[in-house]
């Protein structure tokens, strides 16, 4: 398998965690988003969205991090990243989407660039925008994790799931932008439990071949 990734891309980070949890080998293909390498013709030819991550598995080409994770879970079932029961699967997907759909799209690189270059937002205004959506979005996740008996060591029970694959990169980004996190103690407890696992450590941005390239 080949994974097209950028070390600071939280969506790519999600897939790297899933691959590490399953112990699946892959070749890392760096796509530097800040240098706009995603717009270059060779990459655009295989990625209509011109985004990362992109996973090539033999003849198959897959995009969108959650779709990739579910594909990996179906083709390599152990360890499972989605629960076996329908209600558990729905809860894990819902938690993942609370971050992947409600927080991340408002704060990815394209949006931040548009705020500055097209709307004339200052650096302070851009960062205030980022912090607002991350802090308020994580508060929703906190309420769900704190109030649900299904929460265990991790987002759902005592083994990592797709929800944890999505949560951890968002916390990395929150820390990078100096977001307030003291209002989400359950979220941070789960984050620390994840980061105690070697798979999460191996997938983090500083471990990527293109880190600070």
TrEMBL record:
The keyword Protease does not apply. Coiled coil: none annotated. Residues 85-213 form the GST C-terminal domain. Residues 1-80 form the GST N-terminal domain. Its EC number is 5.2.1.2, 5.2.1.4. The keyword Iron does not apply. InterPro entries: Glutathione-S-Trfase_C-like, Glutathione-S-Trfase_C_sf, Glutathione_S-Trfase, Glutathione_S-Trfase_N, GST_Zeta, GST_Zeta_C, GST_Zeta_N, Thioredoxin-like_sf. Keywords: Isomerase. Pfam families: GST_C_2, GST_N_3. GO terms for molecular function: maleylacetoacetate isomerase activity; maleylpyruvate isomerase activity. Belongs to the GST superfamily. Zeta family. NCBIfam families: maiA. This is Maleylacetoacetate isomerase/maleylpyruvate isomerase. It comes from Sphaerotilus uruguayifluvii.
């Amino acid at each position: 398998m080949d994974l097209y990734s950028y070390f600071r891309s939280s969506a790519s980070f999600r897939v790297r965690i899933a691959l590490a949890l399953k112990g699946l080998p892959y070749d890392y293909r760096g796509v530097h988003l800040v240098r706009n390498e995603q717009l270059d013709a060779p990459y655009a030819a295989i990625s209509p969205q011109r985004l990362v991550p992109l996973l090539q598995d033999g003849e198959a080409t897959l995009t969108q991090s959650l779709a990739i994770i579910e594909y990996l879970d179906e083709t390599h079932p152990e360890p499972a990243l989605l629960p076996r029961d329908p209600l558990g699967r729905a809860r894990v997907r819902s938690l993942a989407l609370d971050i992947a759909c409600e927080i991340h799209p408002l704060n990815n690189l394209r949006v931040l660039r548009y705020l500055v270059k097209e709307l004339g937002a200052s650096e302070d205004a851009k960062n205030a925008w980022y912090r607002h959506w991350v802090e308020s979005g994580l508060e929703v996740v906190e309420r769900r994790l704190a109030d649900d008996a299904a929460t265990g060591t991790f987002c759902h029970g005592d083994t990592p799931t797709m929800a944890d694959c999505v949560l951890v990169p968002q916390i990395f980004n929150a820390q990078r932008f100096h977001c307030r996190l003291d209002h989400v103690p359950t979220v941070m407890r789960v984050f620390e439990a994840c980061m105690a696992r070697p798979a999460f450590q191996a997938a983090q941005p500083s471990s990527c071949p293109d880190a600070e390239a």
